[in-house]
Structures are given as C-alpha cells and as structure tokens.
Design brief:
This protein is an all-alpha fold. It folds into two domains: about 1-50; about 85-310, MetI-like fold (Orthogonal Bundle), CATH 1.10.3720.10. The protein has helices spanning about 1-60, 65-70, 80-90, 95-130, 135-145, 155-160, 170-175, 180-195, 195-205, 210-220, 220-235, 240-245, 255-265, 275-310. Helix 8 (about 180-195) packs antiparallel against helix 11. The model is unreliable at about 1-5, about 20-25 and about 305-310 (pLDDT under 50).
Length: about 300
C-alpha cells in the first residue's frame, strides 16, 4: 500500500508539474501572438502607405488631361486612355523618351556595377586585412556619409569643368562610382559573413589573396553585394540634381531631367495642361524597370538569409 501511494503521489506531482509548465509555456506564445497581430497591422498600414501613390500614378496614366483635373484621383476617368498616353509618350518630340530611357539605363547600370565592385573590394579589405591607417580610412568614410550630396555639387561641377568632362556621360557615371555608404555596408557585412579561419585555411592551401577574394569572399558576400547594387541602382536611376547641373544637351538627359523639362513646359503659359498625362505616363513607365530588378534580385537576399540562419 505504501508503494502504491508513493507512485500515485509521484504521478500527481508530475501531472501538476506538467500543468504548471504548460501554463508557463502558453503565456509567451500568447504574448508572441499579440505582438504578431500588431506587427501585421503595422505592415498592412505601411503597405497601403507605399502602394497608394503607385495606385494613383497608374490610374492617372489611364486619363487624359481633362479627366486629370475633373475626376477623383484614385478612380478611373470617363475614358480609358492608357494606350493612347503610351503612344504619345514614345512619339512626342520625335520619340526622345526612348533616348532618355536608354541614357538612364546606361547611367544606372554602369554606375551601380562599378560602385558595387569598388565598395565590395574596399569593404572586404577594411574588414579582413590589418594595415596601418585602417581605422583612419574607415573614419573618413563614415564622415563622408554625413556630408550631403548637394554640398558637393558645385565642387564636383568645377572639377569636371576643368577636365572638360561636363555635358558628357562621364560627368554622371564617374561621381556615381563613389559610394561611401556601400563601403560601410560591405565592411560591416564582411566582418561576420567571411570567417577568418576559412581564409587562413585557403592561405595554408596556397591560394593567393586574389583567388581567395574571387572564389570565397565574393560568394559569401553575395547578399551584401546585391543590397549595395540595388541601392546604387535606385540612387542613380532617380538622380536628378547631378544631371541637371552637369548636362546641357537634351540627347544626354536621363528620364528624370527630361520629364522635368516636359513638366515645366506643361506648366508654362503656352502649354498649360497639355503634357500632364504624358509626364505621368513617363513617370509610371520609368519605375517599372526598378520593380522588375527588385523582384528578380530579392531571391538572392532570401537565399543569403537562409544560408546564414543555420550554423554548424
């Protein structure tokens, strides 16, 4: 009888312990669910905030100039003029929009690839090599991030004017190759993404530093490289102030400056309310490549996160 009572007492104690443990474990889950609900609401609010301007822009491209000012902004007009606006966009002034779009692609792609390559090499060197003055160089890079680009516009223009490079494509590409934020981001990312023991093992096997960087470093820095590439691509694609002060020839304009000129023409007395639908259509067409680039490259972010989430 005493043994049976002892077993029953132990079972009752274990049941009580499980009940207490289960009660304690349910509370964090419930708190987590409440936080998840709030986070979901915040995400939906943010999504609406970012998508409403895009929705307004798309709806505006389906209206003619009269409907733009006589109908509700977030609903369609009396007639669907999207394809007519697209035709006007690519034929107005002899189809100069095609040239502006090509210029924008050249500026953005060349600048983004070059800036990403320089930022990756510089960030990797600052993170994985020990040399005299490394801290000072990194401090200068951090300081340059704080300097607004508009403060450097006039000195940059004077410098390129002395070299007779103004009103050329190089006046847009060369300044865009320097990305202090990209260097900072790659340096921070390389500190954790590239293991020092892996580099030492490659050196022991006789691999050169160039081969280590090309076969090991670049592969491990993939998500960071894509991040810098997208940042620089968007920055150069949307750049307006630098082309405005550097370029005078309309055939060299990017989309931003070209559409701004059309907008100024539409706002002038003689051309009032004639080009508004064309300008809005051009703005809508100009953001499509950025959306496609983001959708195509985001898988590299996801693969990078998944690769780094499990550590052996």
């Amino acid at each position: 009888m005493s043994a049976t009572a002892t077993v029953r007492t132990q079972d009752a104690g274990a049941s009580a312990t499980r009940r207490r443990t289960g009660t304690r474990r349910r509370k964090p889950i419930e708190r987590g669910r409440r936080r998840s609900t709030l986070l979901t609401i915040f995400v939906w609010i943010s999504l609406i905030y970012f998508l409403v301007p895009l929705l307004w822009l798309f709806i505006s491209t389906t209206k003619d100039n009269s409907d733009l000012f006589s109908t509700f902004g977030l609903w369609f007009g009396n007639s669907f003029q999207f394809f007519a606006n697209i035709g006007n966009l690519f034929t107005f002034q002899g189809g100069v929009f095609w040239q502006w779009a090509l210029n924008t692609v050249i500026y953005a792609v060349v600048s983004a690839v070059g800036a990403t390559a320089l930022a990756t090499a510089c960030g990797y060197a600052l993170a994985k090599y020990r040399f005299r003055g490394r801290s000072a160089v990194f401090s200068l890079i951090l300081g340059s991030i704080m300097v607004p680009l508009t403060a450097l516009a006039i000195p940059t223009y004077l410098l390129f004017a002395d070299m007779n490079l103004t009103d050329t494509m190089w006046a847009i590409i060369l300044p865009s190759l320097v990305s202090p934020f990209g260097v900072y981001l790659m340096r921070v990312y390389a500190m954790d993404a590239v293991d020092d023991s892996l580099l030492e093992a490659a050196r022991i096997d006789g691999a050169s530093e160039y081969r280590i960087f090309g076969t090991i470093g670049i592969r491990l820095l993939g998500p960071g490289i894509v991040t810098v590439l997208l940042f620089q691509l968007v920055a150069t694609w949307n750049n307006y102030f630098l082309p405005l002060i550097m370029l005078n020839t309309p055939s060299l304009f990017p989309v931003t400056v070209g559409l701004a000129q059309w907008q100024a023409t539409a706002s002038a007395g003689g051309g009032a309310q004639v080009l508004f639908s064309t300008v809005l259509t051009g703005a809508f067409v100009s953001i499509i490549p950025l959306i496609v680039a983001f959708l195509f490259l985001q898988r590299y972010w996801q693969s990078g996160i998944a690769t780094g989430s499990v550590k052996g």
